[in-house]
Structures are given as C-alpha cells and as structure tokens.
Amino acid sequence: MSDNYNSAHTFRPGGGMGGMRRFGTGEKAKPASIYSMFVRIYTHARLEWPSLIAAVVCVIAVSLLEFVVPQLTRFTIDHLIPNKRFDRLFLIGGGVLGAAIALGGLRFISTSLMASIGQKVLYNLRNDLYRHMQSLDVSFFDRNRTGDLMSRVTNDVSILQQMISSSMMQLFTDFFTFTAIAIYMLWIDWRLTLLLLATFPFMILTTRVFGKRMRSSFRTVQESVADVSDHLQNSLTGIRLIKSFTAESYESERFSERTRKNMDANIQVVRLRAAYEPIIDFLNYIGLAIVLVFGAWLAMKDQMTVGTIVAFIAYLRLLQNPIRHFSRIINTIQQSAAAYERIMEVINTKAEIIEKKGAIALPPLRGHIAFSSVSFAYSNESKVLDAFSLELEAGKVTALVGSSGSGKTTIAHLIARFYDPQDGVITIDGYSLKDVTLDSLREQIGIVSQDIVLFNGTIGENIKYGKHDSTEAEVIAAAKAANASGFIESFPQGYDTQIGERGVKLSGGQKQRLSIARAILKNPRVIILDEATSSLDTESEQYIQDALAQLLRGRTCLVIAHRLSTIQQADQIYVLEQGCIVENGTHDELLRRQGRYSQLYELQFPQTDAAQ
Ligand SMILES: Nc1ncnc2c1ncn2[C@@H]1O[C@H](COP(=O)(O)OP(=O)(O)OP(=O)(O)O)[C@@H](O)[C@H]1O
C-alpha cells in the first residue's frame, strides 16, 4: 500500500553550507523570484489600502514638487534676470522655500505610513511563517537545524522589513519621478534626451550582472548567519556538557570558524557593491558630459536657451537620483530576495502527514490499537519495521522491551502519527489512523518521554500545558496525583515558581513528575511512556512509580522501558529485536520461557534468581 509519504522526497539542494539546507517538500522548491516577492508583499500590503493610497498620493505630490523647482530656476534665468524683474525675486525665493517645506512634510508622512505598512506586512509574514512551521511534520524538524529555522523567522524576516519600510517607497518614488521627468525631457528636447538615455541599457546590464552575484553572496551571508545561530543554539543549551568536557576553547574555535565564514561572505558583498556603484556613477557622468557638450552646442547655435540647459541639468540630476538610489536599493532588494527565498523554502514545504479529505473526528476512545503488517523506514534509510504486527488491548498495560535501536520509540511515534508507515495499517478502535483527524487522535494520546520538555515559565503554566483551560484546582489535583505537590509547595512561590529555561532549576525527578502531572491533567485515553523512569535514584523512582500508577490507571498504556523492574506488572510484554517481536507474555511467563527476556533480565539483575 502506498501513501503520501512515498511520494514525498527530501529536497537537498547542493552547494549551500555543506549540504545543510534540508527541506522536505512534496516538490522541488523553486527559487523565489523578486517579482513573486513583490507580489506577496503587495498582497499583504493591500489590506492596508487607506494608508497605501495616502502614501502613494504623497509620493506623487513629492514628484510634482521636485519637478516645479527646476522650472523656477529656468524661469529666473531666462525671464527674470534678462528683464531685471527685482520685484519677482521674492516670489521665486518664497516658491522654492515653500516647495522645500512641503517636500519635507510630504516625505515625513509617506515615510511614516510606509514604515507602519511595512511593519504590519512583516507581522503577518512572520506569524504565517511560524504558523506554517508549527503545522509541519516531525520529520521536517528531524531534517532541519533548529538554529537555521530560528534564523529564518528572525533574521531573514527582519531583512525584508528594511526593504518594505524604506526601500520599496524609495523605489516607487524613484520610478514615478523617473518616468515623469523622462517624458518631460523628451518633450523639451528629444534628441538630447535620447542621447542621454543611450547610457541606460548599460546601467541595466550592469545591474543585472551585479544583481545576480549579489543575491548569491547574500544567500551565503544569510546561511552563514543561520550557521552561527545554530551553533549558538546548540552550544548554549549544551553549556554543561561543554564545561564537563572542558571544551570551551574547542567550541570557541568552532564558533570563530562560523563567524569567519560570515565575515568573508560579507566582505564579498561589500566588494561587489564597491565595484558596482562607481560603474553606475561613471555612466551617470557620461550622461552629464553629453548634456553639457551637446546642450552647449545647441545654445551656441541659439537653438536652446541657457535656462533650458540649466533646467535640463537639474532634471538630469533628478533622473539620475533614482538610478543612484537604485544602485543602493538593488543591494537591499537582492538581500531581501535571498532572505525571501529562505522564508519561502519553509512556506512552500508541504506537510507530509496530512488529513485526508473527509477525515472523521475520533469519538472518545476505548483505546484498542493494532499494527497490521506495518513497514516503516525514516526517509531513505533502511526499514526499522518490516511487516510488523502488534495489538495493544484497551485499558491494559503493554510493555515493549528490547535492545537499543530495535524500534520501540518508533512504534510510539507511529501511534501518535508523527510519521506514516510506508506499508500496512495502524488502527485505533478499528479506525485507520489515516482516516481520522490529527487533533482528535493526538488529543486522546499522552506521551511522557525521557526527553522531558518544559517551557520557560512557572510550574503552574507547565502543568497547565496539558489542558489550557484547566482550573487552579485541577492543576493542584494533577500535581497531587503525580506526587509533585509536595516539592512544589515547598517552594516559596509554589505553583508560580519560575523553573528557568527547560526547567534547569528542577531536579530530574521533579521534572519527570511535572511531566506526569501534565499528562494526568490532559487525561488522555492512551498513554505512551517512553523510558520515563530511566536515570532516577531509588527514592525518586518510588515517587515516580506511584505517580505513574496514577497515570496508567484505567487507560491503554504502552510502556517502553529498559529497566525491566518497571514493567513487571504489565499485562503483556513484547520483546522486540530489529523491528520484530521475538517473544511475548507476562513477566513470569517470559522468565519461565528462558528466552531473550530472561537473558535481558539476568543482565540487569545478575544476583537475582531469574526463576523467582
Ligand atoms: N528521526 C530519525 N531519523 C532517522 N532514523 C531514526 C530516527 N529515529 C530513530 N531512527 C533509527 O531508527 C532505529 C530505531 O530507533 P528507535 O528510537 O525506535 O529505537 P529504540 O528501540 O527506541 O532505541 P532506544 O531503546 O535506544 O531508545 C534506529 O536504528 C535509529 O537509528
């Protein structure tokens, strides 16, 4: 039986950061174009249409005012000076000053409006990105580095912010000014203007050539930022390990390797920009030379007034300003395009675990789980389970034991549908997991695993994570059932105690009991305990065992334990080796059988009489 998992593949583009860009998608990600970036930004921005219209009106007004000033100059030179019109000088001065004040005011309004539109667009984009990331599968997070993903949501979105808030408005203003002035100049003197415009194809060509290189350099910069961020994330969370291995200088060296890559990539970008700007300036000077020489020649032949030449040169500056700006904006645009590409790689990644159309919401479960001929492999790796069958009886405790890597945790992940098997069916109360909604399935499953995840916040908030709308009394009851209320109440702030990042301020056993309280509060029908009692001392273990007994009562439980002492009461124990069940029975039955289980048991309890 094939399914959507089979059709999906991993996109591993070559090149970037030692092949570390790994995006699982159903289809190969296309590089996002600058055009699609603008379309997307516009789609978000148009929701702010009143501000957008106001900003556009301001821009048009700015362009018109910029147009008026050279006309005043021309009028002064050609009419007022020759006719000695002293009386009009005051008006001209007032006109220029008035235009300057209006220009300042209009620019202030348009900049503020655009900045706020930009911020709103980014607010939406960042939230969309985060929401989409949350909807992606566990396998996506297996493939991609946390630091890299963090950098996409923070750094790459911030780069876009710079472009939307300032550069886009500038681009629009410049485009409008350029078109209006070019048309006017063609009208004044088309020969001179055409000569002038002859330099433009070279500018466009230069911009294209440099643009491509800049974008690829920016991509390298952003990947190196992601690499730095990933290293930071790993080394800061693993600081205790680093210290215990006295690996501080080794880590510092590895960090400086990454920052060096970032520095080199930035230097490359600066070099490109440093080469690009003078070329554009040189082409601008060619334009100026053309106007001067050809304009002066026309004036000497009385075919043009001096005022027109002066105005022409002023317009030339206005015409060249957009180009000069553009040479700077292109930098921001290319940088943004590289950032946008990285953002879109995430947004275009499709979840592989999807609800089929018409998926039904599971009713309250009894909790009978069955694997029928299930085969599963992580991505392209070898099969972890091959034609595997297993039944978990409703309301009973089923234990899985077996050597490391035999596939126990994988079975738990398949029940919660973190992954889909390539073959076979998994059912719960007779419903295939693929026929039901993910929420209705996961809401009824609780997982308590060896990697306890606690969030920075208070003890109360962490327990409440099991059921966000629970009352204080429910939280306290869950903590009591999990044997956690004693230590919680011994803290001066009780349930309001801040537990620090990942619960660093708590002991291993305390964290474990919080995670059990959280699961008790959730009150799921099915419980998966993944080595929940490893690495605890005997006293803590007794507390945990009592808490677990509370948690398991009356539910369907899958217990994965290396420590065979924890599963002696299980209703059924399955011994797993390389994805296959080699024996099953109760603890006593298995010991009597003298098979793999009793071997494992003797290994753990050498002095114990295996037959007891
Ligand atoms: N996310 C993953 N991506 C790729 N391979 C994986 C992944 N998780 C586990 N594996 C591989 O699948 C196999 C089964 O792993 P699993 O975690 O299910 O074993 P386990 O029996 O729970 O082991 P342990 O008792 O050591 O936790 C192992 O070979 C492991 O390397």
From TrEMBL:
**Domain ABC transmembrane type-1, chain residue ranges per copy:** 53-335
**Record carries keyword Metal-binding:** no
Taxonomically, the superkingdom here is Bacteria
Stated membrane topology is: Multi-pass membrane protein
Among Pfam families, the record links this protein to: ABC_membrane (PF00664), ABC_tran (PF00005)
Where is the ABC transporter domain positioned along the sequence? 369-603
Indicate whether Transport appears among the record's keywords.
Answer: yes
One term under GO cellular component: plasma membrane
Homology family: Belongs to the ABC transporter superfamily.
PANTHER family, A to Z: ATP-BINDING CASSETTE SUB-FAMILY B MEMBER 10, MITOCHONDRIAL, ATP-DEPENDENT PERMEASE MDL1, MITOCHONDRIAL
**Name the UniProt record assigns to this protein:** Subfamily B ATP-binding cassette protein MsbA
UniProt organism field: Paenibacillus prosopidis
